[in-house]
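TL;DR need structure tokens for one chain.
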Amino acid sequence: MKKLLLPILLVFLAFPLFAQQKDSVLIRRVFNEILARGKSYEWLRQLTTQVGPRLSGSPGAQKAVDWGKKTMEAEGFDRVFLQEVMVPHWVRGDKERAWIRHGKDKIDVPVAALGGSVGTPAEGITAGVIEVKNFQELRALGREKVAGKIVFFNRPMDPTKLNTFEAYAGAVDQRGGGATEASKLGAVGAIVRSMNPSLDDFPHTGSMRYGPGVPLIPAAAISTKGAERLSALLKQNPALQFYFKQSCETLDDVLSYNVVGEIKGSEKPNEIILVGGHLDSWDLAQGAHDDGAGCVQSIEVLRTLKVLGIRPRHTLRAVLFMNEENGTRGGIKYADLAKQNNETHVYAIESDNGGFTPRGFGIVGNDAQVAALQRFSPLLAPYGLHEIGRGSGGADIGPLAPLGTVLVGFKPDSQRYFDYHHAANDRFEAISERELKLGAASMAALVILLDGLDK
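>> reply
TL;DR here they are.
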């Protein structure tokens, strides 16, 4: 009996090894194809330089929708379609102006209105400045010291955080809620240090929100160099005056679209594996890292499997979400439609952390689901993908979590991302072709492994 069981046991043990060898060969083919003949870099060139900035509700956003649909149709995917979604329409208006009045000197500083902010009066605002590091410090000052002033939130991103996304999370509350907290105490405006670990002259915009029942005061980001200058001058002269002017406004919502490309599954067509990024960008630049990179990488995953003749068992979708930057309505609408249509999304992978060197994947799921993906580590490690474990998925795929979808966030190196995030220097020239393609290949490799996980 033992002699009979031994060959059976050897076959059983050898099968996973054979499967791993097969996967290893497929992954190598994927990397070879993308690195040698991939289209993601040229697609990004088109999206950033021919379409350009594409804030939700803008003509640029509609041009991006048209570009995404045309690009995926040209690749011959099984289906390409649009999903309607109503999006906010905030416009910046004329270029912002700001300066510090220090004695007889007028010192210009770079600012950018925060997304969703109201404008200043036509003549701008001139007022004294109160500098604070956090909301607790602001509240401790009280209305008597804050009323009639401009509140200057000057808390840098924590440089001791090795992952810059953790540093961002620890500082971004002042951008999101600073104007509301300042308004509660009678301030006439809010100036927020840019969410940028480096010192430069690029102000970084981003979403802000007003709490219920507070006066709507204008809010702007100031560049990190500008913040340092303002802080230093305040120490010399606490009575200095600050001036800023912006003409932004929020218009009526606009009809826009998610763009979806699909390859039908050969065995489980009703189960979907999604790869995606967000098509909209802030209006200051071309949105290369945020998130043109994620969009073209997602399309590249489908193109590569198709050109290599790898027919997925599950249906594979590339989704270019609209309105991640100032509302996430595209992600919400996609999940709502998935629920209405009784669609099953087994996995969703999002690329929205820039086009830098791949490091791994963050997983949102239960212990068994996380462990299942960590089994891929030996196959992915040769490609520099060492960070595979619990993490965050992404803003656009987050609404799929209540439907039982395992969320996966693609993790590139994080050190340079916030140098470009939401700023005018987020341009095509900031992207490395090699790193962008490595990211697309990493996502395609994971899709192949996930597609075969339940065999």
